[in-house]
Amino acid sequence: MKFRKGRARVEPEINFIPLIDVLLVILIFLMATTTYSKFAELKINLPTADAEKQVEQPQTIQVGISANGQYAINGDTTAFASPDEFAVLLRRAAGNNADPMIVINADAQTSHQSVVNVMEAARTAGYGKLTFATQTTGK
């Protein structure tokens, strides 16, 4: 049964013009909203060495501070009136070493001011390497 006599069948067409218009609008939108950033990279090839690094042990000055505010330098009890006087004692204990490591052994009940006095004396003496000694609990 043929219902359409004499009519030729028309093949459907795909119109690409609207598709191209939509894609062009999307492309313009993406170009306008994209942020461009440059990554500054510095390519460096570092030299390698096969030798073992020697562990340097800097000269240390042990400063002890008791709970009642007594000071000791390398085990010798000292007394001073100002951080400047203590700086002189630190320089004397350092001897020829230009920048020794100052290790502060402060009691847990020591006042903060006592520790700050030692730090100020080390700064006055020109010593920038400070560290604090701690003890571990056997838990």
Automatic annotation (TrEMBL):
One of its GO terms (cellular component) is plasma membrane. Keywords: Cell membrane, Membrane, Protein transport, Transmembrane, Transmembrane helix, Transport. It is found in: Cell membrane. One of its GO terms (biological process) is protein transport. It is a single-pass membrane protein; Single-pass type II membrane protein. Belongs to the ExbD/TolR family. This is Biopolymer transporter ExbD. The lineage of its organism: Bacteria, Pseudomonadati, Pseudomonadota, Betaproteobacteria, Neisseriales.
